[in-house]
Amino acid sequence: MSRDSIKSPAATLASNLNSSTGQTGKPLTITTLVSVGQHPKSGRARVADQDAKALELALSLSAGKGTAAVGKGEAGAGKSQINLIHAGTATAEQQLVLRGYLGMGVGQMRVLKQSDGADVIPVLVDAVRKSGSDVVLTGSRAEAGEGSGMTPYLVAQSLGWPMVPAAVEITAVGSGEFEILQALPRGQRRLLKVRAPFVASIDAAAAEARQTAWAAGQRGALEHMTLSSNDDAVLAEAAVEPARKRPKRIARAKKAKTAADRFKAATAKSASKGGAVLVKESAEEKAEAIYQMLLSQGVLKAR
Amino acid sequence: MSDVIRKDPRKNWILRNRLHPLHEQVVAEMNGPAAVVRGPSGLIRKNPHAVGFIGPNGIKRIDRLGGSGSAAASAKREQQEEQLPIIAIEQPQSYVVVVVDAANGELSAHDRDVLGQARLLADGRAENTAVVALVFGALKAALGEAANPDHAFGLAGADRVMLFDDECYAGFAPEQQLEAMLAVDRQLSPVNWLFPDTHLSGNDRALRLAARLGERPAMHAWQIKDGKVTSRGGSEMTDITRDLAAATAPRILALASECALPVDEARYEARLLPLPSVPNAMVRIKDAGAVAVDPNQIAMGEAEFILSAGNGIHDWDQFHATAAALGATEGASRVAVDNGFMPRFRQVGATGTWVTARVYIAVGISGAVQHLQGIGSCEKVIAINTDAGCDMVKRADLSVIGDSQEILAALKARAEQGAVAVSEPQQGKADGESNHNVA
């Protein structure tokens, strides 16, 4: 932990003056906003799943196709640079978790220290603006706290950049243009085209994050920066308590006026009554019946 | 002539003899339809044969409740069902807007729940409040210009409908849709914006609108009760409750499914509202269409269409070829996995994956309880089996009894023939990577 260095904002600004804007030939700057996650069962602090996937996507985007080389976060000539930014309380325990991101192969992370319960959006927007990024990647929803999923949208709104939700793959196609594969429900994918700069949130269906190396995480530098905090008045007013189990919806008869009707509705079996049975038809006729059903359900896609 | 009641002994004799060919005729003549007649001595006689009616099974039924029994009651109830009252809100002073998903142009169960919640919010307000359903994309059943209480929207509780069905709103067009929502916000200034909390449609729209308007939404809300909204926090571990009457109350709400009961007590007008003029958005995210996905790369749990194999499969190459021809994700029963024909992660059932496919074809699977549990949430099940009495046939919506090898061969041939017939008109368009077929 003694390696933590504090960079002055002026130095950061100066280093960004000659950073790229996503034009051809210039190196790409990818910023990943990461948070401290929470295990869904034990509640222990951990590397947030989607944020780690976002960093994985950033690393593979910076490495380009085919190369598995891991960037050290330094802007080499023609090589893309990865900025890691975290804003939060950054207690000693949380710093251990943050080093998990560094262990994925990034040299340093900027940690913007905030007071407990602060609204981190203004400082994040400020940091992203100063970093001169072309691409900003985040998870879609925080694992701890409110978890509303607003962060990428607010950052994009403040910067005036387009926001692409649920990305699973990003490929640079040149001249600042990117192709983004978006995850749709039921495992389907959609292709989107967008120009840098943009913000993208990562879907849970994206490629699994690489393993984090402990030693590399310890070697990496956390650049601390204590910034003035903006109090989150809305969340302070809200009552936060452990989640209650949602009540199950009871099946209800549409117009149950008598007790017998209500009883029947509550105890009715939901299983289907058994459909058509084809026995004597020829194999072709049976296949046709199945095919017609598949067509009517719309699961057959013209290929 | 005289008031003396005279007997006809022959007719009386026929009346007593139910097998007499003239019996019916004489009964009708003497007793008429009435079950109660004056006897020859002037006493009241009840004819037990004229009481009651012949039931649907040919058995005589006597209704001793005098028409106030269940049959009459249910008939009355059916009549009521047909005539749900129409509730019209003529001059609304405020609005609650629901942006429904209406994927495929039809309201989903989730949409109906959110409309039900909107109804509760609107009806709980002191002033006249109308529920406006906002739809992006065309509807399957068209709405007329006048009131449409019998349309799905009217039955779901929408007073007004705004239909943005232009070309520019189709597909993934979040920027143009946001412009439309902002225009509606300026025109109606709704008290609440409600969205179904669905991946990439309701959720995305709610977040975009909230970010643009600079408001704090209540996302993943699952209950609105006593003027308070409760939403789930990160990792589903906390409940965050906010007061809807407070100054910082959320105006934009993304509601989970089953947040409220859908409307079923009344019909509403579902009148089309004129659309506000929407400025053209700067489109920076271009939708290049759906991408073909290898069905076997889709996780079993979320696959839409599964072809599953069991003990009844003997030709495994044919099974794989059929799955490929249909574009189905492959599944298997425990037996097929134990025998080593399919990998373990393809197993469907209690010990394998609980699938949510819309269409599930079970080939040669008799339907063990554990397997039927695993396909519990499948919408349509098709069984191909040699045994017509097996449990899978009882569960299935369509059962085909016969040799699986023959039927799969015919199905594969039909699918290949159909695929050719369908894909022909697209040949001219699909000339490169840039033209993906839009789903």
Distance between the termini of chain A: 56 Å
Radius of gyration of chain B: 32 Å
Say what the CATH topology of the largest domain in chain B is: Rossmann fold
CATH class of the largest domain in chain A: Alpha Beta
CATH architectural grouping of the largest domain in chain A: 3-Layer(aba) Sandwich
> What is the number of independent domains of chain A?
2
CATH superfamily of the largest domain in chain A: HUPs
Mean pLDDT of chain B: 85
Number of helices of chain B: 12
Largest interface: A-B, 82 and 95 residues
CATH topology label of the largest domain in chain A? Rossmann fold
Q: CATH architecture of the largest domain in chain B, please?
A: 3-Layer(aba) Sandwich
> What sequence of helices (H) and strands (E) makes up the elements of chain A?
HEEEHEHEEHEHEEEEHEEHEHEH
- Structural class assignment of chain A: alpha/beta
Spans of chain A of at least 5 consecutive residues whose pLDDT stays below 50 are 1-24, 65-77
Q: Name the poorly predicted regions of chain B.
A: 422-439
State the helix count of chain A: 9
Task: Walk me through this protein's architecture.
- The complex is a heterodimer of chains A (303) and B (439).
- Chain A has 303 residues and is of the alpha/beta class.
- Chain A is built from nine helices and 15 strands.
- Chain A has two domains: 229 residues, Rossmann fold (3-Layer(aba) Sandwich); 39 residues, no CATH class.
- Chain A is 30% helix and 26% strand.
- Chain A has a nine-stranded mixed β-sheet, sandwiched between helices. In chain A, strands 2-3 form a two-stranded antiparallel sheet. A two-stranded antiparallel ribbon of chain A has the order 6-13.
- Chain A is extended and about 75 Å long.
- Chain A starts with 8 loop residues before the first helix and ends in a 6-residue tail after the last helix.
- The N terminus of chain A is likely disordered.
- Chain B has three domains: 62 residues, no CATH class; 179 residues, Rossmann fold (3-Layer(aba) Sandwich); 132 residues, Rossmann fold (3-Layer(aba) Sandwich), CATH 3.40.50.1220.
- Chain B is 28% helix and 21% strand.
- In chain B, strands 12-11-10-13-9-6-7-8-15 form a nine-stranded mixed β-sheet, with helices on both faces. A five-stranded parallel β-sheet of chain B has the order 18-17-19-20-21.
- The chains are: A alpha/beta (303), B alpha/beta (439).
- At the A-B interface, helix 5, strand 8, strand 9, strand 10 and helix 7 of A face helix 3, helix 7, strand 10, strand 12 and strand 16 of B.
